UniProtKB/TrEMBL annotation:
One GO term (biological process): response to antibiotic
Official protein name in the record: ABC-type xenobiotic transporter
Domain ABC transporter residue range list: 19-243
MF GO annotations: ABC-type xenobiotic transporter activity; ATP binding; ATP hydrolysis activity
Family affiliation: Belongs to the ABC transporter superfamily. Drug exporter-1 (DrugE1) (TC 3.A.1.105) family.
Pfam families: ABC_tran
InterPro entries, sorted: AAA+_ATPase, ABC_transporter-like_ATP-bd, ABC_transporter-like_CS, ABC_transporter_ATP-binding, P-loop_NTPase
Localization terms from the record: Cell membrane
Annotated SMART domains: AAA
One cellular-component annotation, GO: plasma membrane
Amino acid sequence: MRSVLPGSDPRPPGREPVVQVSGLIKRYGARTAVDGLDLEAHAGITAVLGPNGAGKTTTVETCEGYRKPDAGRVRVLGLDPVTQGDGLRPRVGVMLQSGGVYSGARADEMLRHVAKLHADPLDVPALIERLGLGSCGRTTYRRLSGGQQQRLALAMAVVGRPELVFLDEPTAGLDPQARRATWDLVRDLRTDGVSVILTTHHMDEAEQLADDVAIIDAGRVIAQGSPEELCRGGAENTLRFTGRPGLDVASLLKALPADSAAVEPAPGVYRVSGVIDPQLLATVTSWCAQNGVMPDSIAVERHTLEDVFLELTGKELRA
Ligand SMILES: Nc1ncnc2c1ncn2[C@@H]1O[C@H](COP(=O)(O)OP(=O)(O)OP(=O)(O)O)[C@@H](O)[C@H]1O
């Protein structure tokens, strides 16, 4: 396997789960933030999604060893983050949203300092270049832009060549270029055999990057699978066509398989839902032919991860 990160040798992917959480409960006073959560993450990139307050950060911070579970079992790289933290810390990189950096430190000094804490760090100047921080190496942390601070936090998380990195909203507040540079770096981590657990509110980010997605709501994992599996299984796809308004939808419905639906949500817009396969497409076009209907457009609309997410977690804002 080619190594894509500066100074890094690719690691062969392990077969054991990198994270195993079962029956995790975490309370803050009377509030139960995590409520019997089960999660297994394997080598590759796992995205953890969920509405605000769902318990993502609490779960991830428990895996990082920053929080002690009230109940349940947590193993990261096979180790207990609380009782075996000393063995785990050198093998895991953590990117915190708040950065965790002394505000008067210069970016390159900070990164060099963190690199020295590790036995076999990545090449610091190359990493600085790779993340587009070359022009601000001498700038103090407090004077870096929000996006530069984010990228420095990411560099600090990966400089020790961890086996696993936790990235908490790694692209929050980044401009599109910096976002894509971060995505490229995360993909390179995977290519080099580093596993990544990332929390994000960006569905496109999860769709682009993740091998596996876990959706958390009210302190539990409510769905998990690859983006394709979730999009396939979570919601039906639709076939949409446009034509003259007022077509006989009831007659179209009769021609379709039993568990399909056909509606005209707006004049001249027709939506057929159910199992959208070549046979159904043929049925719709032959119904059009029999009824003298020439569609202006016809398209299969696939559900995105965002559709699935909203369907599973609801569309209303959480308190
Ligand atoms: N230190 C704390 N003290 C008290 N309550 C907390 C604390 N941290 C989190 N909570 C509460 O626990 C619940 C879960 O919070 P958590 O930060 O884990 O969710 P999240 O899914 O990461 O949310 P977000 O997407 O908004 O970051 C929320 O109701 C939150 O208010």
